[in-house]
Amino acid sequence: MKQYRVGVVGATGMVGQRFVSLLEQHPWFQLAALAASPRSAGKTYREAVGARWAMAEPMPEQAAEMVVLDASDVDSVVQKVDFIFCAVDMKKDEIRALEERYARAECPVVSNNSAHRGTPDVPMVIPEINDAHLDVIASQRARLGTRRGFIAVKSNCSLQSYVPALHPLMADFGVSKALVCTYQAISGAGKTFDTWPEMIDNVIPYIGGEEEKSEQEPLKIWGRVENGSIVPAVSPSITAQCLRVACSDGHMAAVFVKFNQKPTMEQIREKWSSYSGAPQALELPSAPKQFLHYFEEADRPQTKLDRNLENGMAVSIGRLRPDTQYDYKFVCLSHNTLRGAAGGGVLLAELLAANGYFD
């Protein structure tokens, strides 16, 4: 596989730090540029991050000595890289404009941000589920007037547990509606217990904007490409309630699901255990060998035990049982800054690279 030079824009934040860590030993991607806000520009990455390094592993030495660029100086970043990961912390309209500037400068953008998730010709991809949506990039390039440049985004972190769990059941059994309650770790807010001590021994039953994303984004993922746009699906009906919990990493979801044709529990477990997608077929470097793991134990999945399955890139499912109002209920779990954020972004970039979108 060809080697690609990669930039991380928004490198000093928690997701940016995770990108830097994941790229240290990546077989395809070489970290070539780090960019952040003007207050970090001109400093070494070590100086810019300072005491805010939030990863368990030490800061990679190569990255530590790199001089941080100004993220708004698009030309300076683009000349060093073949594509960028974007994880900036800005207002949505500012992010939307910045990402389009990079794309129009013929630099592909793999975004962790929500600003372009609703843009009809921007694919929002969970690589095992809707890789066919990459086809819309041709239409996006036509709109932007670019040859190489485009934007692709990953979905909201909270979706990465329950959407993969529901997806293998849809074709044969038809999911008509789902009720989802998510229990989301503080790293999803870019925090640690040191920086957010109010979360210790606490649960906050509100995350601004999260419930709307959790209800609407799956419909785009399950939509179809038509006339140069992604047309969202009209079903299933999803209602969500999202809570912030005192956990460092891992987003859990309690899911209640109703089917058009009710399967047996054995059929559901078989669908989960046998499901795989494009990353597994292509043997991408970050792809889990088994995407979905089901646990029979009554007390699983658990964040401490199961969030790091297959380097944090697998989804854990357990407690499948009948429900009196819905057909079944279960619990699922994913690592939010690995599967859900930076790791999912790296996997999406691998999928794009394997299909020639960076060439």
TrEMBL record:
SMART domains: Semialdhyde_dh (SM00859)
Alphabetical GO biological process terms: methionine biosynthetic process; threonine biosynthetic process
Molecular functions (GO terms): aspartate-semialdehyde dehydrogenase activity; NAD binding; NADP binding; protein dimerization activity
Pfam families membership: Semialdhyde_dh, Semialdhyde_dhC
Active site, UniProt feature: C157 (acyl-thioester intermediate), H251 (proton acceptor)
EC number: 1.2.1.11
Annotated Semialdehyde dehydrogenase NAD-binding domain residues: 5-137
Entries under InterPro entries matching the protein: ASADH-related (IPR051823), Asp_semi-ald_DH_pep-lack (IPR005676), NAD(P)-bd_dom_sf (IPR036291), Semialdehyde_DH_NAD-bd (IPR000534), Semialdhyde_DH_dimer_dom (IPR012280)
Top EC group: oxidoreductase
Keyword set, alphabetical order: NADP, Oxidoreductase
PANTHER family: ASPARTATE-SEMIALDEHYDE DEHYDROGENASE
Similarity comment: family membership: Belongs to the aspartate-semialdehyde dehydrogenase family.
Name the record gives this protein: Aspartate-semialdehyde dehydrogenase
Organism of this sequence: Anaerotruncus colihominis DSM 17241
Gene this chain is encoded by: asd
